[in-house]
Amino acid sequence: MDQTAEIAPAKINLALHVIGQRADGYHLIDSLVTFADRGDRVSARIADADAFMLSGPFSGGLETDGNNLTLKARDLLRATVIEAGGAAPPVALHLEKNLPVAAGIGGGSADAAATLRALMRLWNVESDAEALGALALRLGADVPMCLAGRPAVARGIGEKLTPAPSLPSLHLLLVNPLKPVSTPDIFRRLDRRDNPPMDALPGSFSLPDWSEFLAGQRNDLEAPARQCVPEIGIIQTLLRLTGAQLCRMSGSGATCFGLYESREAARAAERNLRTAQPGWFVEALTTVSGDET
To answer: 211 a known binding residue?
Structure first.
């Protein structure tokens, strides 16, 4: 194999409870995450020298040096492979950026995880799950969950993952006003860092049961995010007007999601909101199912 590609799916926090803070400043979370059927795309091929290209509607302004998480993932995996006596020849990487940047839906973490998956295949790297998870964590707290790419409860700082096998596929509409949000700034604005954890997950695969469960959970970052991006409240009002059963912000924002009964309902809402707000990111999608783990 001399070339390969990986999708870096959007990550959605269906609930995100901030339940504590470590002595080193990292916040402890209790979050239910799932992943979309679309996102960015990372392709890799063996080359004479390392190269990195960007394309896609949200590639403008992205860094192309060592600060880019895609390149950090390449360099970290290469160093690990070489230290173990393996070969990690030069590669040309291409990141197709289809998702907004700093939007609370995975972004650079998902791109880094996709890069790890692609290069492990390209370089014939074998690694056990624990070692790979530890490597991913060195790139960021969200990278292990993005590397797994399956519905899960994320605890600790996001690295302690428990599968959520009973979570069904969900029909969502993602909306972002294209205003980037600084995650550290949102955490600094929190009034409270010792909130209650999530309730126990439903044991059934029933969408009504999950809808009822999700309605009782929170995103503790939403209130401080609204201080920075007032459009979050407008988005959720518009989502409700299109028939969304549930509206919530994902991650540290400013992307919000609406939950719909069917794919057709989500797509109808997508058409309506794209017409009403042509300058926003509006995307209907379906999430992966927990029983596919």
So the answer is: no
Domain boundary among 113, 134, 163: 163
Instruction: Examine the fold and report which residue of 163, 193, 215 is the final residue of a domain before the chain moves on.
Output: 163
Q: Which residue range is the domain that position 64 belongs to?
A: 3-163
Cis before 47? omega within 30: no
Each residue of 188-224: pLDDT tens digit?
999 999 999 999 999 999 999 999 999 999 999 999 9
The reply to whether 199 belongs to the active site is: no
Q: Is 11 a catalytic residue?
A: yes
Dihedral over alpha carbons 221, 227, 229, 233 (to 10 degrees): 80
Find the catalytic residue in 11, 40, 97, 220.
11
102 is in an annotated binding site: yes
Does 101 count as an annotated binding residue? yes
Is 208 marked within a binding site?
A: no
| Secondary structure of residue 13 in the 3-state scheme | strand
The answer on 178 and 140 residing in a single domain is: no
pLDDT band at 293 (very low <50, low <70, confident <90, very high): very low
Residue of 30, 40, 142, 220 marked catalytic: 142
pTM surpassing 0.90?
Answer: yes
**What's the sign of the alpha-carbon dihedral 256, 169, 291, 95?**
negative
